[in-house]
């Protein structure tokens, strides 16, 4: 799979910047699990990648700081028996992580006051609820 990894329409990671490592996987596979290197580790050096713009790199490094080791992002996939399926799963997982890290920050919410009508509805509902509970009470110990 020497294909470029498409993260967004504007961000594409060249295949040359991705490194794959294969190892034996635990889990399903029967006797073949001991002989097949089906587990895939896909690594991308985010800190030194020339394909990521400088302004975007800073945002992504900040958001992925807990997952990076020396600026390198690594994902592993071993849920499938076939190496090819695990390669696809690892690529999809890496693309999703990078896409989420590259997303624009949410707009800042401006706090507003509740409307007069919503305040009146809230108070009316509280009074209605209090009347309902009042009817359930007994005045003494029966």
Model description:
36% of the residues lie in helices and 18% in strands. It has a domain at 5-102: Double Stranded RNA Binding Domain (2-Layer Sandwich). The model has no long low-confidence stretch (mean pLDDT 87). The chain is elongated, with a radius of gyration of 27 Å. The chain contains 3 helices and 6 strands, in the order E-E-E-E-H-E-E-H-H. With 142 residues, the protein is of the alpha+beta class. The longest helix is centred in the last third of the chain and has 21 residues, at 116-136. A hairpin with a 5-residue loop joins strand 1 (5-6) and strand 2 (12-13). Strands 3-4-6-5 form a 4-stranded antiparallel beta sheet. The chain has a two-stranded antiparallel ribbon with strand order 1-2.
Q: Give me the secondary-structure category.
A: alpha+beta
Radius of gyration: 27 Å
Q: Rough shape?
A: elongated
Q: Report strand %.
A: 15-25%
Q: Using the coordinates above, name the CATH class of the domain at 5-102.
A: Alpha Beta
Total helical elements: 3
CATH level 3 topology of the domain at 5-102: Double Stranded RNA Binding Domain
SSE arrangement, N to C: EEEEHEEHH
How many β-strand stretches?
6
Q: In what order do the strands lie side by side in the largest sheet?
A: 3-4-6-5
Q: Which runs of at least 5 residues are low in confidence (pLDDT < 50)?
A: none
**Average pLDDT score:** 87
Helix content: 25-40%
The major pleated sheet works out as:
4 strands, antiparallel
Q: What is the CATH architecture annotation of the domain at 5-102?
A: 2-Layer Sandwich
End-to-end Cα distance: 79 Å
Biased composition (Basic residues): 124-135
GO biological process, one term: rescue of stalled ribosome
Pfam families: RF-1
InterPro entries: Pep_chain_release_fac_I, Pep_chain_release_fac_I_sf
